[in-house]
Design brief:
With 294 residues, the protein is of the alpha/beta class. The protein has eleven helices and ten strands. It folds into two domains: 64 residues; 196 residues, 3-Layer(aba) Sandwich (Rossmann fold). The structure holds glutamine (GLN).
Amino acid sequence: MADAAPQIPTVWTIKALLLWTTDFLAKKGIENPKTDAQILLAHVLNCKKVDLLVNFDQQPSEADRTRFKELIHRRVAGWPVAYLVGYRDFYLLTFEVSPAVLVPRPETETLVADALAFLKSRTAPAVLDLGTGSGCIGISIAHQKKDSHVTAVDISPDALAVAKRNAAKHGVADRMTFLQGDLFAPLPSGSTFDLIASNPPYIAANEFAALASDVRDHEPRVALDGGADGLIFYRRIAAAVGPFLKPGGKLLLEIGATQDADVRALLAEHAELEVGPTLKDDAKLTRVVTAKKK
Ligand code: GLN
């Protein structure tokens, strides 16, 4: 009697798990399958991504593999990987995130880098982060510019709670003020800033359908919805920002890739503002509109 076909024992090493999962996620249309597989497995094994690569031959326990599998299923069902693990790296720090906040994006690092370059020569600058979300912009600035004071505003109390924890985690809470409210509304009257930065909601009503489902169905609508034409917050900020900027103070607004001309035109309507160069992100898309108070 012929032997049964040899069964190849499947040994689930870290390497095998990553290869299989990367392939699986790619087939399911996930955008960054390799990175996602690494982040999720590192989370399950409670180690850093780099530790996976140096321990390629280790075999995670069955319990860990089961947890990993559950996360993979939720990722395929559309959950952003940052919500599954509860954090996201941004600029130089790791930020806690939850579905109450937009996941920090690499594009926004362009804004932070320019803010820090502007603040470098200023002593004890006052900074305002409008719509702080996870706090990634304001906290990165406070962390790098040690004599700055950063005021962070958000309309969502749940987002502010996340931002406050991030500020504490990164040791900058004593140089930050957190205010709940709508744009400039919660600021004490007469407050002025060297720099005002914002990544406001900027998705237009007709763009929602085309958004990736992990963004559209899982990230907070309040952090994405920029009204009918996507420009409502730029209009409001342009109209109100003047008195809150010191003379020579800078405004940095993240924009969607097609909004440059519109946002520049909105700012140019206000005589006290001088519109500066628009910055491009790493993908060479127009991403940050700049202006200064005359
Ligand atoms: N960058 C986000 C996206 O395209 C939108 C962020 C925002 O509206 N500020 O998904």
